Amino acid sequence: MAAQVKSKQRVEEHGEVFTNEREVNDMLDMVKQETERIDSRFLEPACGDGNFLSEVLRRKLAVVGERYGRSQLEYERYMFVAVSSIYGVDIMADNVAECRERLYGIAEDEYEHRFKDECRAEVLDSIRYLLSKNIQCGDALTLTAADGDPIVFPEWSLAMGSKVRRRDFTFAALLNVSAEEPTFDMLDEIDQDEMGKIIPKPIREYPLTSFLEVAKYE
């Protein structure tokens, strides 16, 4: 079992205590149906090195394997969907790096175990790129990234065949920050439907591209 504390100093300075595996599974079992829905999005605002997110990914990939394991292309497409639905923020850069590598390792191991020598490097490159965008170093309380800019998350969705649509949103807009009285500087990030419900607007939209080529967006 992984340690729940890395150091006394980190606990004192950041309140960092990791949730153990049994508690993680007990909590996720409370939303078991969602953890096993491939495209259900999960965000952990203090993700640490990925205790919760890694278990969510394992559950999702188990469903991907069960449904699409007979077709490598279908497995690859829905593995992409599973990984793309997982988001995290942590204030500690080493935790972010460890979380990304941990999630990548889970996806890589499952993929290689299932398809061995037929694995495609571009699939794993896309998975790594997803994690570089979905797992952010920043402060979920102030909604700012480590560089001081607003945290921005991409929304990924399969559009047609192997094509993927990407839209970027600020974390603040996704949370409907200042939903009662939006500030002037948020007016380009939110909209309202006929019932007055605030809905986020993307700050950037990208052309459709193959899920194998998402790293070419930038």
Automatic annotation (TrEMBL):
One of its GO terms (biological process) is methylation. It comes from Bifidobacterium longum. The keyword Methyltransferase applies. This is SAM-dependent DNA methyltransferase. It comes from the Bacteria. Keywords: Methyltransferase, S-adenosyl-L-methionine, Transferase. GO terms for molecular function: methyltransferase activity.
